[in-house]
Specification:
The chain has a domain of 138 residues: Butyryl-CoA Dehydrogenase, subunit A, domain 3, CATH 1.20.140.10. It is built from ten helices and seven strands. Strands 1-3-4-5-2 form a five-stranded mixed sheet. Strands 6-7 form a two-stranded antiparallel ribbon. The chain starts with 8 loop residues before the first helix and ends with a helix.
């Protein structure tokens, strides 16, 4: 049994490279192709399919991307790269030139840019072909999605591992984003004064923030254990990474709620210090990549 472990020096260095390369980009900035291609040049999109420890690499990089609330179909690209065969389509996605759409019918993220579409159905991934009229959808994070019917082909043999890697990436992003939300809320609690005292001296403010910190740390430990085991065994029945995703999802959503409570009205303004991050958290938390399995096992 592999217990929760720390990332090694190479993995921490990789996360630092990503953070430095994106440091001039505002946290929670909307999607743009130039920023996406920066990630491609750094090799982000091949992490889940290359190297001796793909899941651990995803943890390192996606925690950093989560801290930036980086826009784009990040998790979907990890899944697509794991199911696409080596060839021109996969290479173009790896270079950040085109996209693969990975959705759950009838919703298809970034489908207008995609060359290939894949459908998540439970624990399986199917090649999909959109049919009929496609209707634009307004999403939680403002990303371009389409609503459309689709014809699905037979499930792919390596879909289970692709979903496991996607859950690792999503959980890492959620942990990273949740951590930034709590850091900003804690700073607010230290500096915002009412009646001559910081609001953080009140237990009703400080204790929930401490609870969120503990929950995020626990989720991070569960995530890293799942990632190390996935790299060691190369297989996942959905339980380990599914629970890691569910834990990170719950912890990050609680962090978003408590951060908004700490900031009060300022927290819900579109231009405020939280909205761009918390809406990205809610988008990642809604991904259909693990919860059906957990619901079925209850």
């Amino acid at each position: 049994m592999i217990t929760a472990q720390s990332l090694d020096a190479d993995e921490r260095a990789l996360a630092d490279v990503i953070a430095t390369a994106c440091s001039e980009r505002p946290v929670g900035a909307p999607f743009d192709l130039a920023a996406w291609q920066v990630l491609a040049r750094l090799g982000v999109f091949s992490l889940g399919s290359d190297g001796p420890s793909p899941a651990r690499g995803l943890v390192a990089v996606f925690e950093a991307l989560g801290e930036m609330a980086h826009a784009g179909p990040l998790v979907e690209t990890v899944i697509a790269m794991a199911v696409l065969e080596v060839g021109p389509e996969r290479a173009a996605i790896e270079r950040g030139e085109t996209f693969a759409c990975v959705g759950a019918a009838p919703f298809w993220p970034f489908a207008t840019k995609a060359q290939r579409c894949f459908a998540i159905a439970g624990e399986a991934i199917h090649p999909a072909h959109l049919t009929g009229a496609a209707v634009p959808v307004t999403t939680l994070a403002g990303d371009p999605w389409l609503r459309s019917a689709a014809d699905l082909e037979a499930p792919l043999a390596n879909g289970g591992r692709a979903l496991a890697l996607g859950r690792v990436a999503a959980a890492a992003a959620l942990v990273g984003a949740g951590r930034v939300l709590i850091e900003r809320a804690a700073e607010r609690a230290r500096t915002r004064q009412q009646f001559g005292r910081p609001i953080g001296v009140h237990q009703s403010v400080s204790h929930p923030l401490a609870d969120c910190t503990i929950r995020l740390s626990a989720s991070e430990g569960l995530l890293r254990t799942a990632a190390f085991e996935l790299d060691a065994q190369s297989e996942d029945d959905g339980a380990r990474t599914g629970m890691a995703f569910a834990s990170a999802r719950t912890s990050a959503l609680m962090a978003a709620y408590q951060a908004h409570q700490t900031f009060g009205a300022l927290g819900i303004t579109l231009e405020g210090p939280l909205f761009a991050i918390s809406r990205r958290v809610r988008q990642w938390a809604s991904l259909p990549i693990g919860l059906p399995l957990l619901e079925a096992r209850r």
